[in-house]
Amino acid sequence: MRHADLQPWQSGTDGNWTRREATHLLWRAGFGATYAEIDRTVHEGLDATLDRLVSPPDESPRFVKTQHLLRGIAIDAQNIGDLKAWWLYRMQHASVPLTEKITLLWHNHFATSNAKVQSVEHMLEQNDLLRRHALGNFRDLLHGISRDVAMLIWLDGNANRKRHPNENFAREVMELFSLGEGNYSERDIAEAARAFTGWHVRRDRFWLNTIQHDTNTKNVLGRRGNFDGDDIIEICLDQPACSQFLAWKLLRTFVLDRPEKQHIEGLAERIVHHKYQMQPVLSELLGSRLFFSDAARGSLIKSPIELVIGSYRTLGCAAHLPNTLRLLADLGQDVFEPPSVKGWEGGRQWISSTTLLKRTGFATELMQGDGLGSIAAFPDQLVALVENPAKFSAAAVELLLARDLNPDTAASLTDTVQQNNQSPDEQIRGLVHLIMTLPEYQLT
Fold first, then answer.
1. Would you state the pLDDT for residue 418?
2. Is residue 422 pLDDT above 90, yes or no?
3. How many CB atoms are closer than 10 A to CB 163?
4. Which residues pair with 208 in a beta bridge?
5. pLDDT value for 119
6. Nearest 10 degrees: CA dihedral of 233, 234, 235, 237?
7. For residue 291, which phi and psi values (nearest 5 degrees)?
8. Given its phi and psi angles, is residue 118 left (phi above 0), alpha (psi -120 to 50 degrees) or beta?
9. Phi/psi of residue 137, nearest 5 degrees
10. Would you say residue 313 has pLDDT above 90?
């Protein structure tokens, strides 16, 4: 039976289904939310929206053509910057970006950097693997990543030989990919490394080098046998710590930065119940009472990508992708080049005195249209309210924050609008800039 907080949220019983609930869901399940997307979500209701999020429809011909073009440019140019631009385009313009959001989660979970791999093709193949299994089965993904060429290069797979096992991959499989620290011994890692010996790369493909594979008996996590790498992965998946570690990661990404033990254990039970199939797990989590609780709302610090791409999507910005990539790197999130095997720690680590200034500078630069891109037209719903300062500021706050502000802050926004004698476009830019520089805008 599900934990009470993981029971389905019911409109009318647990609260009313309003624009705020819709906006909260869309920001957490993607990157920003336009007026039209919020309107559609309010109209469809929670259940229908969840079905659409976890079962994305086919993309538009324009999206398919553009992303294919950007992908081809990256491959032809052998330029990792072009590949980063391709992925940012997908994040901003996918009709249902939950798949991209989870692909980004797995990219951080299985953190691999092109700084060492040095191959656009291998990084692209890994990204395709993560996306293919984003809403699929974590078991299949973990098996797939163990044979992924970029991962094998990143963790020195070719150095893992029968006479001299290299423990890098076995350690990360347990510590970072499945069990978490404290749920294995150094002996377990040494024995697991023997099971992965001979898992090499040859001619840019996975190669099982049987000559270098240790076929002797291994003892791993209380099990004994002539194990290979696939056996080790299955043994890890069978450990209670695996579902709990994955539950903690999902809760931190979508719900709370510091989830409680009861919520971790409750979600872990659902993961096991669904046999590591992510689609139903995500549907239940995003539709839960916990997800829509007061404690969860506005509790997560936006990652640089959530901040920047979310702002672009919400405001309909035509982004200048190369400049955006430089900004994201400055803010601490450079896709395809995470800082270490542990990826980005996230949470409070996103904010420092330096990055906070850069986040404020991002709002200024975006509204001035200097280098990051252009906003051709603001939502008609905002333009129509410019002559009514109170409604105008309230509508902008509802779109960008979807929560109540401190009364003094709200009054200050309205006063600023009342004293502004500029054109409607300039008034909207000024108000949006003020909201984007509020501390509340750093949270989702």
1. 86
2. no
3. 7
4. 199
5. 98
6. 90
7. -60, -40
8. left
9. -100, 125
10. yes
The DSSP line for 122-164 is HHHHHHHHHHHTTTSBHHHHHHHHHT-HHHHHHTTGGG--SSS
Domain ranges of the chain: 4-56+240-286, 304-442
Angstrom distances, CA of residue 154 to CA of 203, 235, 276, 341: 16, 23, 26, 9
| Residue 215 binned pLDDT confidence (cut-offs 50, 70, 90) | very high
Decide if 297 contacts 24 (C-beta within 8 A): yes
DSSP labels, 201-249: EETTEEEE-GGG---S-EEETTEEE---HHHHHHHHHHSHHHHHHHHHH
- Confidence grade of residue 314 (pLDDT, cut at 50, 70, 90): very high
- CB contact at 8 A, 54 and 331: no
pLDDT, tens digit, 9 for 90 and up, residues 333-342:
999 999 999 9
Cα–Cα distance, 119 to 204 (Å, whole number) = 10
Residues 6+ apart with CB under 8 A from 281: 250, 267, 270, 271, 274
For residue 317, the 8-state DSSP code is: E
Amino acid at 204: D
At 86 the pLDDT is 98
Distances from the Cα of 61 to the Cα of 55, 68, 100, 124, angstroms = 18, 10, 18, 22
pLDDT digits (tens, 9 = 90+) for 246-267: 999 999 999 999 999 999 999 9
Indicate the burial class of 242 (C-beta count within 10 angstroms; 0-12, 13-18, 19 or more): buried
Which two tokens mark 121? 């093709």
Give me the chain's average pLDDT, please: 97
CA distance 91 to 313: 9
First to last CA, the chain: 30
Question: What value does the mean pLDDT take over residues 210-228?
Answer: 98
Can you say whether the dihedral through the CA atoms of 186, 189, 194, 200 is positive or negative?
negative
Distance between CA atoms of residues 290 and 281, nearest Å: 14
